[in-house]
Amino acid sequence: MPDSPPAPQPVAPPGAIDCRILLVDPDGEARQALEQSLASSGRYQVHVAHDADGAVYLLGHTLIDLVIADVDAGLEQAFGLLRRLRREPRWRTLPVFFVGASGDAPRRVSAFQQGVDDVLAKPVSVPELMARIDALMRRVRLARSKWRGRRYELAGNFRGLAFSDLLTILENGQRSGMLSILTRRGGGALFFEDGRIRHATFATLQGPDAVYRLFAEAEGEFEFLSGRSEQEVPQTIFGSPTGLMLEAARRLDQYGGPSEAPSDCAPELRFQAALEQRQRTSAEDVRTLAEALSDPFNLGELALLRAEELDSFLSEVHAPGALQLLLVAPLEAGVLALSALAAPLSEGQVSKCLSRSARALTFSFAAGAERVLELLLVDPDEPYEAFGERWPPVDAMIFAPSGGDWLSLSISSRVALSALIARCQPQLVHSLGNQNLTAAISEVLLQSSPSSELINDPTLINDPDCDFRAVIVSALEALEQHLSAAERLARPA
Fold this sequence. Notes:
Blueprint: E1 19-24, H1 28-39, E2 44-49, H2 52-59, E3 66-70, H3 75-87, E4 96-99, H4 105-113, E5 118-120, H5 126-149, E6 152-157, H6 163-172, E7 177-183, E8 186-193, E9 196-202, E10 205-206, H7 208-214, E11 221-226, H8 241-255, H9 269-277, H10 283-293, E12 301-305, H11 307-315, E13 322-328, H12 331-339, H13 347-353, E14 360-367, E15 371-378, H14 383-387, E16 396-399, H15 411-424, E17 428-432, H16 435-448, E18 453-457, H17 468-490
Parallel strand pairs: 1-2, 1-3, 3-4, 4-5, 13-15, 13-16, 16-17, 17-18
Antiparallel strand pairs: 6-11, 7-8, 7-11, 8-9, 9-10, 12-14, 14-15
């Protein structure tokens, strides 16, 4: 039988309760000991359940911020509960901690792959558990404050508001801002000025073709952020939204779909030239870099690029043997991770790296005269800030959003990052995070870069135990295998 709801607890003063916790453990004695330890702090409201059914019952009637489930006392119960929570939309992002399984690495890996947020070894250190809970709740509050501070005025799904109706609303209202769109086939953005579309992107398309293709999308999420763009937005569209809708309808009648008609916009010559001229790094180059980087005494260099330096870097066709990586991670976590691989930075340099005025942070590592690893750090919340529309082709990408969860990102960030993957065409993507992140990137790659390889690591970049040198080496080793297989196929029989 499901556990009955607990007796009403005294109402704490406003702000006294930091987190509402649900403990799931069939061992009543252990459960009671942990419950008393947490509740005695006065900062946690603790509910208890004997099994998964009781937990689900309580979750349906009680506001819960975090679930802590014992694995050792009920392995199947804990994993069954985790799967139920991750399938249910209203509980999909609810943090889940597992307690136990300290000596079973495969079990811990399986837990992370299925979406658990943390695993704590027994015996549980209550101060450490409280510190982890507090750190998690700080991240949750920060994410919520960012969301509350967003100035979007219109958001929804094409199933409730068709793309054509959405354009009509923005045109008639003479709105200015960015319309971010995410569909199963890719992401895009439309930039409006006084109700007219100045520029549009969708997957690998831009200009009018991007708008025409969006008319073929029956489902998709959208979000409109009002205000003038702070970045320089090129003008690729000169007609009115009504004119674009009429042309899309004409193409639908004549060609059977908006995307089937011949393209009317000029190709992106510079990007295509860079993509075609770039000489792919060989498996031997990657192997040499991986071996050199695996030595903890070998250090690279960190540098901030000014605007003109970044422009030069993005337009440059790099020499053979130079390996380009993109690190998509929160600035603070990314700077700290890269600092461990380079000469120590002063406080002033770190502060400068985290400044919004900084255009880009690069990490360079050399293995000999000709083999160089070049890595750029990009903030997942503002990828347009560094690149605009000039994203370069790269060899590999390390994807490490805050909390390791794709769903923690805003719609506009997911749109921009989907487009980033499509434009950069990485040969390999190494994701640091949970199953949601891996599934989302896999779907993006399937649509925009099907030849790319995806590997996953449940380690979080902001985890104190994360060895970022090992993360890069692991990515390089996977890239080497990918290139070796491609080279074998390319050899004449």
